[in-house]
Amino acid sequence: MFDIFAKCIEESNANVFRTQDEMEARLGELQREMQEAGIPTVIVFEGWSASGKGSMISRLISALDPRGFKVRTMAKPTDEERRYPVMHRYWLNIPANGKIAIFDRSWYRCIDFKDGKKLKAEDDGKIYNILDFESQLTSEGYLLIKIFLHISSDEQKRRFDKLKSVKSTSWRVKKSDIKQNENYIKVYRLLCELLDRTNTENAPWHVVNTSDRDIAASNIYSIVISAMERALEQKSRGLAINPEGPAVHAPVKPQVSVSLRDVDLSLKVESNSSYKKRLSALQDRLFVLQNELYRRRIPLIIAYEGWDAAGKGGNIRRVTQALDPRGYEVIPIGAPTPEEKNRHFLWRFWRSLPKDGHTAIFDRTWYGRVLVERIEGLATEAQWRQAYDEINRFEYSLTSAGAVVVKFWLHIDSDEQLVRFTARQNTPSKQWKITDEDWRNRSKWADYETAVDEMIARTNTPDAPWIIIESNDKKYARLRALEVLIAQVEKRLAIKD
């Protein structure tokens, strides 16, 4: 079991070989070096109530250039924030490469430890989310420094009494704070367990006793300086800046999938009249289901991938024609912007998630990491291989938070693609749809086919399965996508025929 007090002594004894001025100057130098090296830094401050988080953060940032950091105060989530997965607001606040984000309280607040009650079964899922988030950051090259501020029960009570004795500060002591002090031993044991389970090689805890604020500040300077120096040294040697993290995997296993070559592309609609009749019925049904999703506050995420000219745009239009425009958004995904390139590759998708009851339709998705970025060499082999598990964990976070995730691969054969490319090129009103890049991608058909087969095999999970839509016949593909979408939503709503 992780012992807070023993760890605290260890940290205190690890100090202070520089004067305060020397450490402040060194920290300023390191901030500039980290920015030049493009290493993003996340510093987390957690601790007991009245342990001095505000004052310790103030001491730390006094040595930093304010243009290179932001302090994020994470209070209780707002009603709006509660409409997203728990980790959503933390993903939104991760820093760009070379920048520093300092969290005054953090994702650890999703677990209520103030009254010292034992961890519940539901907390296991929250701890998974914590480990997953930290692992994704550190494996992508973020430096994560976690600092827990420790005080004794008597010191905490003394600080509460001092705050309550002054009218202007008495409001800062809440009933829950008093309860924490009354249950100090129970809370202590709970924190020991929580810190033990989240004290990993890639994101270790540093526990600092803040009974003496000057010594505590020196300890914090020392911790941050050592971590940054180590990260810069590792990067200069061409090594990962963090040790390999814990084996955090989504608690799901991919299902058996089919190869693209085994898909029957001869399927088509019988007649135009039957197509129109069926399309209308399916769109009417989807409209009803959209309203039910909104009523139950269930988000719907539809992910479209497929070959160039496979009909994604037309397919998406037949879906959106059925929906109330106030409740959905279509999100086209192109090459990442400079801002997006400067963060974890999943950051831009976390930013685009729908709030509960709403629908997000992605025209291309996070799977670009294992498709175009893989084939075009825009991601290293280590990055795209790692991405399969990261994507499974991302989608697990969505489905475990209650979302319906529907993933389509629109499939056509090479001959059909050539016919469509040629038609676009020869039709003035459609020439904008065809580019030199489309022809270049076509020349890599075999490479993409291999990548798609592996993508589906590695990420075809029970709660977020891949649906291959036979798309040589566009009308058949539109009906098929609507049918599958309706079936998936009805399954989530537990609606039977």
For the sheet with most strands, the description reads:
5 strands, parallel
Across the major sheet, the strand order is 2-3-1-4-5
Number of separate structural domains: 2
Can you say what the CATH homologous superfamily of the largest domain is?
P-loop containing nucleotide triphosphate hydrolases
Unreliable residue runs: none
- Number of E-type strands: 10
Which structural category fits the helices and strands?
Answer: alpha/beta
Distance between the termini: 52 Å
Average pLDDT figure:
93
- Count of helical segments? 19
Order of helices and strands: HHEHEHEHEHHHEHHEHEHHEHHEHHHEH
Portion in helices: 40-55%
Under CATH at level 1, the class of the largest domain stands as: Alpha Beta
Label the overall shape: elongated
Tell me which CATH architecture of the largest domain applies here: 3-Layer(aba) Sandwich
Rounded to an integer, what's the Rg over CA atoms? 26 Å
Classify the beta-strand content into a percent band: 5-15%
Task: Describe this protein's structure.
With 497 residues, the chain is an alpha/beta fold. It has two domains: 4-236, P-loop containing nucleotide triphosphate hydrolases (Rossmann fold, 3-Layer(aba) Sandwich), CATH 3.40.50; 260-492, P-loop containing nucleotide triphosphate hydrolases (Rossmann fold, 3-Layer(aba) Sandwich), CATH 3.40.50. It contains 19 helices and ten strands. It has helices spanning 4-12, 20-37, 53-61, 88-92, 121-139, 153-164, 175-182, 184-197, 213-236, 272-296, 312-320, 338-341, 347-350, 372-375, 381-400, 414-426, 436-442, 445-459, 474-492; strands at residues 41-47, 69-73, 100-104, 143-150, 205-209, 300-306, 328-332, 359-363, 404-411, 466-470. The strands form two sheets. The protein has a five-stranded parallel β-sheet with strand order 2-3-1-4-5, with helices on both faces. A five-stranded parallel β-sheet has the order 7-8-6-9-10, sandwiched between helices. Strand 2, helix 4 (88-92) and strand 3 form a beta-alpha-beta unit. The longest helix is centred in the middle third of the chain and has 25 residues, at 272-296. The radius of gyration is 26 Å and the shape is elongated. The mean pLDDT is 93.
